[in-house]
Every structure is written in C-alpha cells, then in structure tokens.
Amino acid sequence: MKRTIKVTVNGASREDEVEPRLLLVHYLRETLGLTGTHVGCDTSQCGACTVHLDGRAVKSCSLFAVQVDGRAITTIEGLATDGMHALQQGFWDEHGLQCGFCTPGFIMAAAQLLADNPRPTDAEIVKGLEGNLCRCTGYENIMRAVRSAAAATAAQAAPAAAPATVGG
Amino acid sequence: MAVTSMIGARIQRREDPRLVTGHGTYIDDITRPHMVHMAVVRSPYAHAAIRSIDVSRARSAPGVVAALTAADFRTVLSGAVPVTNSFVADKKQVPDQFFIAEGEVAYQGEPVAVVVAGDRYAAADAAQLVHVDYEPLPAVMDLEKAMAPGAALVKRDRPDNIGWDTVFAGGDIDAAFAEAEVTVKERITQQRLFPVPMEGRGCIAEFDEYDNHLTIWTSTQVPHFIRLFVGGGMGLAESQVRVISHDVGGGFGSKLRPYPEEYLACGASKLLSRPVKWIEERSENLVATTHGRGQIFDVEVAAKRDGTLLGLRFTQILDIGAYHGVFSAFQAVACLIAGGCYGWKAVNGRSIGVFTNRTSTDPYRGAGRPEGTHLCERAVDLMARELGMDPVEIRRKNFVHDFPHPNNFGLVYDSGDYDKTLNRALEIADYQGLRRRQQEMRAQGRYLGIGLCTYVEICGLGPSGPTAAAAGVALVESSTVRVHPTGSVTVNVGTHAHGQGHDTTFAQIVADGLGVPYESVDIRHGDTADTPFGYGTYGSRSLAVGGISILKSCQKVVEKARRLAAHVFEAAEEDIVHERGSYHVKGSPDNAKTIGELAFAAHGAGLPEGMEHGLEAVTYFDPPNFVWPFGAHICVVEVDQHTGAVEVQRYIAVDDCGNVINPMIVDGQIHGGIAQGLSQALFEEVRYDDESGQLLTGTFLDYLVPTIAEMPHFETDRTVTPSPTNELGVKGIGEAGTIAASAAVINAVVDALSPFGVRHVEMPARPDRILELIHNGGGDGHNPGAGREVTA
Lengths: 168, 792
Hints:
Shape of chain B: globular
Structural class of chain A: alpha+beta
Distance between the termini of chain A: 76 Å
Number of helices of chain A: 6
Largest sheet of chain B: 7 strands, mixed
Number of strands of chain A: 5
Oligomer: heterodimer
Strand content of chain A: 5-15%
Strand order of the largest sheet of chain B: 3-5-1-12-9-10-11
Number of strands of chain B: 29
Number of helices of chain B: 21
Distance between the termini of chain B: 69 Å
Largest sheet of chain A: 5 strands, mixed
Strand content of chain B: 15-25%
C-alpha cells in the first residue's frame, strides 16, 4: 500500500509514491538516482549514508522515506551551491579520501559540524565525526581536511582586512 | 601546464572531484534494463548435512522470478572455486568447493540457495521463505584438536583436517641452536580479522544468449582473474567475457578472488535471461567474505649472551577455514620473511594449514608479512629482555648491512639502510627522553611503554623466477601506451585500483616518461575489454611491476618517435636529440617537434619504407626481483593499571619505499596501513562460539572497526633508498604500515607492563586481558607454549 510523499531534495520539489517500508537511503538512491549517498553497514554504525534533513545530519539508512514527508533533504550532490563546498575542497586538498566510499557521509557529517561550530577544536572534530567509519585513511587526513575547510571558510567569512602596508 | 618533472610531485588526485561530489560509480550505483535482484540464502550452521531444500514458498512469493539451488546451477556452472599453488604447492588435500552447497554445509554463511526477484526487498523477503532441513553436525573449531588423529571432520568426505604441512628450512637450525647460550620461547597468536572494505562485495551479471557473451560488473581488485575463472565456470572463453570494475570501495585483499556469488549471479543470468544484481549486505560481508590472519605461532629464539641472534625456529598453525582460500597458503610467506632485518645463522618455519568449520581465510592487508614481522619483532624483544639489553641495541647489533642481501631462504633484499630509518625514528621520538620519562612515571605508579618495530617486507609480486618457484605463477604486469594523432595519450593497464590513486600516479609516470603534459594522459583500468591481461592490485605491486611496465612502454614510444623525427627532419637517427618530449636535430634546437606532432605524422602518409603507422607500445614487465621496503616504527602507550586501558600517546613511522612518485599518496597509504595494524593490536577480533561454530561478531555492533576517536595522530617521515630492481627506484607502500604497526603497539604494551612481570600480550590487547595479566604477575594461564629456558 503505497503512500504519497512530498519532499524537497537538493532544492527541487518531489512527489513520489513509496512503500511505507522503503528506507530513505533507497528512496534517494533508487527512486531519485542520487547514488552519491552510500550504504556501508546494516546497523547504522558507518555513516556512509549521512544526508541532511532540514539542515541536520541524519543516517538515511535509519529513516523511512515516509518519515521525511514535507521536509527538505540535502545529499552530497546538492551540498555545493557553487563549484565545490569548502569540505569537498578540503578533502581533495588534504587527501582525505582513498577509495572514496565513506567520503560523502563524512563530508555531510562534517558540514553539519562546521555549520554549528565554524572553528572546532580537534576534540570537537573527533566528537562530530565519531559516527562515521573510514577504513582507508586512518582518519589522519580526514582531520586535516576538516581543519582546512574550517580555516578556508573562516578566511572567506572574515571581514576584508585593511590593506597591508608594504615597505613601511 | 608546462611539461615538468611530475615524478615526486605532491599533486592532488584526479580521481577525487567525482568522489567528493558523490559522482563515483560503485557497483550498487549501476543498473541495467530488465535487471533483477538476487538474495543469497546462507547456512546458519557451521556444519550440517542438508536433508532437503524446499523453495516452493519462496518461488510463489510476490515479485519473485526464481528460487534456485545447486541442482539448477549444475546445469550452467561447472568446476570449483579456484585454488592457487601459492607458496605451498604440495598441499595434502584441495577439496573442491562448488559455488553453492550440495548435501552438506561446512561454514556459517555458505550459500545454499538463491532467490531472484524484481527488487531487493522482495528478494530478501522471499529468501526467508526458503526452508532448508538441516541435520547439525559437530563443528570443528579448535586448531590443535582438529589436527589430532581421529578428530571430527570439517566435511564428512575428507580423510582428515590437514590442508598442508610444509617445512621451510633456511639453514641448519639444529647447529644454530647448538651454539645458543640463551633461548627463549613463546606462543604468539594472530587473531582472525575482518578486512572490512567500506563497500561490500557486489556484482551484476548479464548473459547475452544471442551473442553468447557475458558481461560482469563487479567490485574487485582483479578483473582479469574474474574473467578467466568465472568465465571458465560458465564454459566461456575469455573472448566471450567482459569484466568491468569501476570505482571500488576498498578491498584490503578481500576482493582479490572470484567468489561463489559471482558465479551464482552469472549462472542465474543465464538461466533467467536477465541481468542479475547481487549486493552484499554488511552482515553477509562479515560472515561470507574471506577473513584474514587466524594463526598460531610457537616460536623459539636462540642467541649468544652478547645479543648475537643465531636461530629462529617456529611452527605456524594456520586456520584455513572450511575450504582453501584462492590464495590461502600465501600466508605461509610469513615463514620466508620471519627473519626480518636481521642476520641469522638459520631460520626454520613449519607451516601447517588446518581446516575448520569457519569462513575461509585469504590474504588481508600484508598477508603473511604482518604475521612474520610480528613474530620476529616480538621474538627479538623477548630475547632483548632475557638478556637485559635495550631493544634498540639488539636490533642494531643484528641488522643486515650489506646489500643485495640473500636471506636464509635465498630471497634477495635489494637495498636497505636499516640503521638510518631507526636512527631517524629514535630522533623524532626522543627515545632517551622517553626512557627517562618512563622511569619518572613508574615512580608515580604510571606505566608508559615504548615499542619498536624495525621491519623489511617483500612486495612487488612478482618476478617469474622466484615467484614461480614459490607461488607457482608468474605475476607480471602489462600496459599499452598509445599516442593519438593529435597528441593526447591513452594508457591501458592490466592492474586495477581500489583507492590507491593509480589514475594520478600512473599519469605522473607517463608525463615524465613521454615528456607530455600530465593533463593529456588518460589512464584506463578495470575493464577487460580495453586492457591487456593483468594480475590486479595486491601485494604492493601495482607501482613496482605495473608502473615499470608503463615506463617501459613510454620508452618504446619515445624510441619510435625518434625514428619518426629523423624521417620528418630528414636527418640521421643518431643526430636526433630528445629532451622531455621534444625532438630536434643536433644544433637546431629552435626547430623542434613535440611527441604529439610526431604522432600526427605517424598517422599520415609518406612514412618511410617498413615503418608501421601509429605511435604506441605494449609491455609485459617481468621484474628481476621483488622489492624490499623497510622502516622503523615507534609506538608510545600508557597503560592504566586500574582499568587495563591502553592509550596510544604517540605513533612515529619512518618508512623507506625507495623513490616516491606522489608523497601525498604514500603518506596516506602509511596512515591507513598503521590504522589497520594498530587496530589489530588493540581492538579487532573475529570471535566464534567454540562449540556451535556460530559467529559472535556478526555486525559492527560486535566488531570494533575503529572510529576517529580511537586513532592517534601519526608522525610520519621517510628516508629514500632507491631500489636497484627497477628504473624508477621504487618499491611499494600499500601494506608497510600494517606490517609494522601491530608489533610496535604490542611491544609498547608489553614494555609498559614489564614491571608486573608481563613478557607477552596477545592481540587484541583488551583491557580485561591486560588486567588479568597484571593480576597474575604476567602469567595469563592461557599461554601453554610460553616459557623460557636458559641453557647456559
């Protein structure tokens, strides 16, 4: 017995008939073809499926599609509004990924972390990302990637500095 | 970009823009028209007879297309899962594993039936409706009991549970022990591990009955193996089979073989005339994808009182699981490299492969080298302690210094400078300062431990001579380099990547090798239809074998371009000067042509008599030797005597993998490698119930894959000792971190606990295990092989 849901996904309105038991991650991947969100475990440990629900990071393997009726979803494909998001650039610059399978989930989790706390300490980064698993990087460069994105965002947000005096 | 030296440059990976934006193509991202989904019904028992299988309810469930068992698959599949002769050619028995159980199951998770349906939910539902009538049989779980005469059998039709029993004798071990002034012995266990790539396995099989062609999309490290073996199981020649592997979400050794499910998907596609997709769930990945390690070593070391190492004698008892892994016996390579960086009079290892009612073991990151290194580095520390020597001093005293160095088994270490990496690591760590701090902290009742691991590893598999002798195969690697008429370059390689960044590093090699812009080079891999036969990515081989193949193809292209230049300039070939992709006649550097311009000429009219059109080359590279990376890792831990918790305070890694193509990627490989070795030392352990054979760690709720919260910062540095084995002077780095880390961590934990009389700690060094050791004064009561003998 299908139900109709209305969802905003990456800024676009959608209306779909879904089975009540359809997981959000399968709705995104299979109904909408947004395959950047991945499934890495059956038990909500790995965070590869992390997306934003009304701006908050959630594990889309742990929600049914019907639970997001009337709400807004952002996936990795919709994170950047212009070119690359600072975190996507940070992961690229700092080699924060190898196989890349966990990466969309990390970036979505980190995006919420930075939205809440633009200048996190290392301990706060750890706390923000401990719901995600990566098997390739040992997390060293993921830490660097998030630091780098935070610094880049802060630099961009900072009011224009007074022109530097040259020569003195 | 101007043509510059790309080799050695820290450039960002060209793979990443698609991966960080969610535009990669992993196996589950692919769909085919008319595709159906396969779910696998697996044995819940470790060992049972199958009385009957009733698929009638599943077959009539909504959305179901078919429910199939062994009898169905026998009509389209033949043969068995392949087993190589790797390292142990004279196996005692190689039982055939058909791709789905027939009459008896021998491990939990073994496929017994499949259900195919229109969507994955319907397939999963209907799989629950397959009724299998099992008669449980005794599960053989204990390695030593399984070896005993008259033991219960893993499968009823086998003579015993012994897969192989082989001695690797490197020198006169009795003579070495006869000289001994001190001997030490210990039992050292390598627990079973899950490889855990974040993407599980999966495939789509599409059999075209009209062309008699099969296409397989699969998440694998070895597309050409899959074509060869799975195609063979379907009765098809390689020319009738195409294997495509796009982005692969990690492998770590667990995706370097054809698996039953790949055969079953192909068989189902042929039976149903539809594309069949199978995507592994994590719980399947843990129970049915091969495991790593699972070994017991009984080790004995002989030395003189001055610390001169004499002999290393050990037995490796390896848990094969129910069937040989495709490369199961590869892990016996532990015996051949257990001597490590040290000169020994003799090294002698007996390897016994034992069947149990568990999932098969097969290579997992390092595959035999972490095990050999762990035993060697623990043994050397045990001896140092017995002799009252500093672990640094016993290592320095026994390091090999002259290269090339044939080890006790005739394997030739190509180059090394073990003092250099050790000294650098000690300097970064401030070793003497750490020792002082350790004393100060002990006075306060706090327990700091400093652990070393100095390793050498064998990689770059492998030269046909020694590899064929040891492993029964020649693991060469292939490439084609083709310059198109307007100068861009396509490179097709036989190897394949699953996170290593080959698209980037191989393009760096080609940019320098041809002298063309990096951006003009496209690297193609993972599709058997457009790549020459290759052996895939494992054993840290893709650069040292595959990369050199590419370089050699580039050299052939450069030479042909020289002949073309002579023709174009109407000059003698010996008067043509080539510099970074540009050719001119000696004395006329202003009139130069690029390799791209010559490629245009190579596709045009008026070529000289006898010259073929085109500008391309093929190379199958067979290296003259393995390559031998080495390094020194130091781990600093504090152990809480009240809770048994281990805190890794520092981890220092100084590695030497020869020349480096892209330092950013090398550092990343080291980080990830250390993480897996450290995690083996402290966290991970596959556990089964000893009686029933039930997997007790079947989800991530029960198996600790470390998060960012468990991992320390890694302090990395490197020295560069080029390999003389190949023209780039490169070695390998994919496994080095894993090979070194478990010993460094455990040596640190033991060092921390030494005031309590602890001389060895098994992995994982869990708090409960440590507390028990502290309370029992070092004897854990679970280590019957432990003990020491002072013979003089």
